[in-house]
Amino acid sequence: MTGNTRQLFELAGAEDARKTSPFCWRIRFALRHKRLQFDSLPWRRVEKERLSATGQGKVPVLIDGDRTIHDSWQIAEYLDSQYPDLPLLFFGDTGKDKARLTGQTIRFTVNWVDHSLIRALRNIVSHGSIEVSAEKDKEFYTNKLQTVHGVDLPTVGGSDGHLSHLSGVLEPMRLTLQTQPYLGGSSPSYADFAVAGAFAWARSVSPIKLLEDSDPLYIWRARMFDKFHHDLTETTGYPL
Predict the structure, then answer these.
(1) Please, is 60 exposed, middle or buried when counting C-beta atoms within 10 Å of its C-beta (0-12, 13-18, 19+)?
(2) What's the pLDDT at 149?
(3) Per-domain boundaries in the chain
(4) Beta-strand (E) ranges in 65-204?
(5) For domain 95-234, which architecture applies?
C-alpha cells in the first residue's frame, strides 16, 4: 500500500498478484491510460462482506477519496466525468453528438466483449481459472461455471473447435483493424481496454495459446500489452 486515496478492489487468484477478472483488468488499464495512481486491493469471491458498503458483491470497485463506484462501465464513465482534462476513455471528433455516438459505439463493443468474447474464452480457460483461484474460491468457481454459465468442464480447453470458434468471434475486430491501429481509431479507447482486459484475464489463468503470431490481433494485443507493460510485469500470468 502506498497511501493513495484511490483504491481498486480487484479479483485475485491464489496469489495476490494474479488478477483474474476481465472486468477489473479493463479498469486497471483505464486508470493507467488516464495516468491515475491507485492501490490494488486483492479480493476473493467469498469475501463479499468486504464490499458490504456498496450494497452488492462484485468487483471492480473503485474508491476515489470519499466516492465509491462499482460496475466497470460506471467506473469508466465516472473517470471521464471526474477527470475530463486527462486522456479520455470515451471521445468523439467534435461536438457532443459525435462524442455521444462514440460512447454508444463503445458500449456496443463492450457488450460484444461481455457476451461473446468472454464466453468464447471461458470455454477455453475455465479449467485454468479454477486451478489458479484461491483455495476458498474453488468450490464457488466450479459451481458458478457449471450452473450459471453452463460450462461443461470436462470438455473445456484449447481444442481445435473452441479455438476455431474464438477466431470466428474475433473476425469483426480483425476487419476493423485493417484500416486503423486501434478500435478507438488512431489511439486506444475504452473499447480497446475491454478487449485487452479479456486477453489479460486469459493470460492470468491459462497457458493456452489463443492467437497465432501471424494474426493481426496478435500484433494489436502486443501493442496494447506493451503500452501497459508495467501492469503485465508486476502481475502473475503465463507467457504468451
Answers:
(1) buried
(2) 60
(3) 7-82, 95-234
(4) 67-70
(5) Up-down Bundle (1.20)
**CA–CA separation, 145 vs 122, rounded Å?**
9
- φ/ψ of 22, rounded to 5, equals -65, -30
In this structure, which CATH number among 3.90.550.10, 3.30.70.860, 3.10.450.30, 3.40.30.10 belongs to the domain 7-82?
A: 3.40.30.10
Read off the C-alpha cell for 89.
476513455
pTM of the predicted protein model: 0.93
Q: How far, CA to CA in Å, does 43 sit from each of 11, 46, 51, 52, 151? A: 5, 9, 9, 13, 24
For the beta carbon of residue 139, count every other beta carbon within 10 angstroms: 13
Residues 197-208 as b/e (b if ≥16 CB within 10 A, e otherwise) read: bbbbbbbbbbeb
- pLDDT band for position 170 (cuts 50, 70, 90): very high
d(CA 110, CA 114): 6
